[in-house]
Amino acid sequence: MNLTQQDQEKIISFLGKNEKAYYNPKVGEMMTTKILVIEPSKTLADALEIMVKEGFKSIPVVDKSTNQLLGVITDRDLRTYCKSIFNYTLKEVMDTLAQHKISDILPPFHLCQKVKEDTLINESAKILKQVNINCLPVVTNDNQLSGVITRSDMLDHLIRILEPLE
């Protein structure tokens, strides 16, 4: 192929722009929209049951009437309030968790890590890494929950990039 230097630069520039958009999409293009949520009036035992049943490590906490994100409850939060399974029976552990409402332990909203739908995946990945969390709620401008983006979603995307389907 006999391309001039200028043509080569145009091709690189053209491909680079398209590939960057493909490789670094917005969160709204990748987020999971079918999500389980929990209300702040539920107990930590309720949260644990959902997490175990569904295989989740975190659940967004929302006001059901407005779909406003209030925060996220994680497996780490539950362990903080949980008696050791090695020293207590499962019933005692669950009874302890049932004594605490999610609203009692939910961190202040301004500490909740979240992103908007137009946030790029690389920025979301940096937040997950820096804060050492597995899931980011995705919100609208008025903090209504629209989805979640997880480390698994990002790993799936990386696999698609590195091993595209034929």
From TrEMBL:
Record flagged with keyword Plastid: no
Keywords on record: CBS domain, Repeat
One Pfam match: CBS
Start and end residues of each CBS domain: 31-92, 106-166
PROSITE patterns documented for this protein: CBS (PS51371)
InterPro entries from the UniProt entry: CBS_dom, CBS_dom_sf, CBS_domain-containing
PANTHER family: CBS DOMAIN-CONTAINING PROTEIN, CBS DOMAIN-CONTAINING PROTEIN CBSX2, CHLOROPLASTIC
Name of the protein this chain belongs to: CBS domain-containing protein
